[in-house]
Amino acid sequence: MPNSILRLENLRKKFGGVVAVDDLNLVFNKGEVTALIGPNGAGKTTVFNLITGFVKPTAGTILFKDIRLNHKKPHAIAALGIGRTFQNVQVFSNMTVLENVMVGRHLRSRNGMLMSAFLPPMLRREENRIRASAQERLVLLGLDRYAHLPAGSLPLGNQRMLEIARALALEPTLLFLDEPASGLNARETMAMGELIHKIKSMNITVILVEHDMELVMDISDRVAVINFGRLIAQGTPKEVQLNPDVINAYLGT
Ligand SMILES: Nc1ncnc2c1ncn2[C@@H]1O[C@H](COP(=O)(O)OP(=O)(O)O)[C@@H](O)[C@H]1O
Ligand SMILES: [Mg+2]
Questions:
Q1: Distance 117 CA to ligand 2 centre (A)
Q2: Which class is 1-81+172-253 in CATH?
Q3: pLDDT band at residue 253, thresholds of 50, 70 and 90?
Q4: What is the residue with the minimal CA distance to atom 17 of ligand 1?
């Protein structure tokens, strides 16, 4: 398929006796926003963890373009331009907002940030470039006025935005967002929707897990529904909404 960027082929993950992901076959299209939805415990986060290298598949294949991701480590996968956020927001609370974004960029550069005080001029210039581009990300997300505050002092909505800014600093082509609107109020959720639109317009392919169906239906080009680790439906938001298997999975009939 010429337009695909990521393919999951017979992907399977067992945790002891629990089959979290069960022979999943799924293709994600380049440039689209795809929502992965399903009841709690359906295996959505595990799919994200498999693709981004945080857990290893029991069987099956993960193909990013033509690259097999199966046995790659998270940092190697990130370096390919695959970014992510976490269901439980993970920012470095005691570091400033700006430093949090710089950490994302450093995933792609040769030297670690902590050494920066001892850097020779050439690397110091690299450090300055990273700082400038981190600052640009903050402007893009409307977080620049908080640049020098500790990340932990921001409200949850801004912390989720910051986590996305950090992921964007990696200049990803593919971005995974695990429940980006979880815990956000209506206004923050609307801002998150607008941000995801903006990210799509930057030619970044977005795959998200989200429970807020209004948001999902608003921002997604395609929706894939999983239940007990298996794909039960996929299609446009409208198609999926009307699918009886999906209605059953959610209402438990
Ligand atoms: N690291 C893990 N160890 C053991 N079981 C896990 C682990 N991660 C997830 N699971 C189990 O796998 C299943 C799917 O979980 P998860 O992927 O978090 O679902 P979702 O994100 O759809 O709510 C659940 O039964 C969960 O308890
Ligand atoms: Mg989850």
A1: 39
A2: alpha beta
A3: low
A4: 43
Could you report the per-residue pLDDT of 136-155, keeping only the tens digit for each?
Answer: 999 999 999 999 999 999 99
* Distance, CA of 108 to CA of 101 (rounded, Å): 12
**Total residue count of the chain as it appears in this document:** 253
- Report CA(52)–ligand 1 centroid distance (Å): 15
* pLDDT band with cut points at 50, 70 and 90 for residue 105: confident
Residue with tokens 């680790």: 229
Residue 98 in this model has a pLDDT that exceeds 80: yes
Q: Residue 53 and residue 192: Cα distance in Å, rounded?
A: 26
Pocket around ligand 1 at a 6 A CB cut-off: 15, 18, 20, 38, 40-46
Domain map (residue ranges) of the chain:
1-81+172-253, 93-169
End-to-end CA gap in the chain:
36
Task: Specify the ligand 1 atom closest to the Cα of 226.
Answer: 22
The per-residue pLDDT for range 76-96, each reduced to its tens digit, is 999 999 999 999 999 999 999
Strands 67-68 and 59-64: antiparallel
Q: Which residues of 210-224 are buried (b: 16+ CB within 10 A; e: fewer)?
A: bebeebbeebbebbb
**For ligand 1, mutation pick of 11, 13, 18, 210 (most atoms within 8 Å of CB):** 18
What is this structure's pTM?
A: 0.91
20 CA to middle of ligand 1, Å? Answer: 6
